[in-house]
Design goal:
This protein is an all-alpha fold. About 70% of the residues lie in helices and about 0% in strands. The chain has one domain. The protein is built from 18 helices and two strands. The chain has a two-stranded antiparallel sheet with strand order 1-2. The relative contact order is 0.14.
Length: about 475
């Protein structure tokens, strides 16, 4: 019986002019979203490769300079690339790169705001002069038009457009009593209508998204990322099921078609743009971050306190006065860094509590926003798509933690020769530690995605349960 209802429903939909307008536009938007996300992914790949090549070139130039010096080329003391402290502080650097995953085209996420590479030198990470991707400020304010945007924001609108009157239309036309006079329950009648629309709309979303992503991003096959594509399909099915369940629930209230449309659009406004925005504002209000001015002042006070406690300037200049003019340049460099590097580390320890407070507040903001996402299926879906693209907030926190760990390795590597009063060897220059990004364990990402899927299942189950329970007492005679 449900199959017959679906066939009849297709005959009706195929005669509606709105179907021939909305479906092609929907398909084009899906294709454009995939193309836009793929373009952004390729842009990030080019930038990260360029950054890596720049860091490689810097190391090669320094080794080549050393080889010329060892071969007898004259040089001044300042030109010696073996000086560990200048190398660590400004002459040398590494770009800590977060390369995009093959599935990065699913969602731009936070990748247009958060950097995909960070410049690492001796100085604290908050003082690093990083060269991030520069995006049009208007684009950053509006957000990217990617596949995630189409699926989270526009996908529900098509479901609403084709489902807001699945029961009310026949009731208003006076044909519903005749239809339901057949040996058919209201629930089966609605299920047939919803099944046809679900196959059409969700089927197109899943089919075009998966095929488009695989065709535009063939590296997905090579990088063991097909499981992410499979989860994408599951998320889309569950998200679409929620909106169809909402359509059933609203139609079961026995209101007019116009009222149904208004109610469903109101639900879209509340659940898609408003609730996620309110959640973010709430998290920032409950756990406000310290002002940037406070952070800058804390760093300045820490530098002054550390210098005062060590008597750095007085001891440094007193040492220089005892040096001969010929040895002044080398002595000033060696003595300065021998004193100032530990001094900078001490200053960071003094300013540490302020940064701990900043990081703690930021962590609490993130945790609260993560919990509040369960108020909206749209927020759950948006974050899940970001996880699949490796562009979520948690993905970037994982990356930044790796950069912080690497920064410590960089410092320790160059601190040793400085404290031992010696230059870097050629082997040490060739084998400067490099950064390698390690994505999160699949089990960790899967556990978060499983929670998101369970939340969407619950949303869909509640709407369908409410709607079909109301349909048990549905009266087709009401108009």
């Amino acid at each position: 019986m449900i199959k017959k209802i679906m066939v009849n429903e297709w005959r009706l939909l195929s005669r509606e002019w709105a179907t021939y307008i909305s479906i092609p536009i929907y398909v084009l938007l899906l294709a454009y979203g995939i193309a836009s996300g793929t373009t952004w992914k390729n842009f990030v790949i080019e930038n990260t490769l360029e950054a890596r090549a720049l860091a490689d070139e810097g190391i090669q130039k320094k080794v080549a300079k050393l080889d010329r010096i060892l071969a007898g080329e004259p040089y001044s003391y300042r030109e010696d690339p073996r000086l560990a402290a200048p190398y660590a502080r400004w002459l040398g650097y590494e770009f800590a790169i977060k390369p995009p995953m093959p599935t990065a085209a699913i969602s731009v996420g936070q990748s247009d705001l958060a950097p995909s590479y960070l410049k690492v030198q001796w100085k604290p990470m908050h003082k690093q002069r990083n060269v991030d991707e520069v995006e049009n400020p208007q684009n950053l304010a509006v957000g990217a038009f990617d596949l995630a945007f189409v699926l989270v924001y526009l996908f529900p609108l098509l479901i609403i457009a084709l489902s807001y009157n699945i029961l009310s239309a026949e009731r208003e036309d006076g044909t519903q009593v005749l239809l339901l006079s057949q040996p058919l329950s209201v629930g089966k009648f609605v299920m047939g209508k919803i099944a046809l629309r679900g196959v059409l709309i969700i089927g197109l979303a899943v089919g075009i998204s998966l095929v488009g992503l695989l065709v535009a991003n063939p590296d997905i096959f090579e990088a063991n990322s097909l499981w992410r594509i499979g989860i994408l399909a599951a998320i889309l099915i569950l998200y679409g099921a929620f909106w169809f369940g909402l359509a059933v629930a609203v139609n079961a209230l026995e209101m007019k078609s116009a009222t149904n449309a208004l109610v469903m659009m109101a639900c879209w406004l509340v659940l898609v743009p408003i609730t996620p925005a309110v959640s973010n504002i709430s998290a920032k209000s409950l756990y406000p971050l310290p002002s940037r001015i406070e952070l800058v002042e804390a760093v300045r006070r820490a530098d002054e306190q550390a210098a005062k406690e060590s008597g750095f300037e007085r001891a440094f200049y007193a040492d220089l006065l005892r040096k001969s003019e010929e040895a002044a340049l080398e002595a000033s460099t060696v003595d300065f860094y021998l004193k100032t590097l530990p001094l900078e580390l001490h200053a960071e320890e003094i300013a540490g509590p302020v940064f701990d407070k900043f990081n703690n507040q930021k962590r609490q903001q993130r945790e609260l926003a993560g919990n509040l996402k369960y108020l909206s299926p749209a927020a759950v879906t948006q974050i899940a798509l970001g996880e699949l693209a490796n562009h979520s907030a948690l993905n970037f926190e994982h990356y930044k933690a790796q950069v912080e760990d690497y920064h410590k390795i960089w410092r320790e590597y160059f601190m040793k020769p400085v404290m031992e009063h010696r230059n870097l060897t050629r082997d040490e220059m060739v084998n400067v530690p490099r950064f390698t990004y390690v994505p999160e364990e699949q089990s960790v990402v899967l556990s978060r995605l499983l929670k998101d899927a369970l939340a969407l299942i619950l949303f869909a189950a509640v709407t369908f349960a409410f709607g079909f329970n109301r349909l048990k007492n549905y009266s087709p005679a009401k108009r």
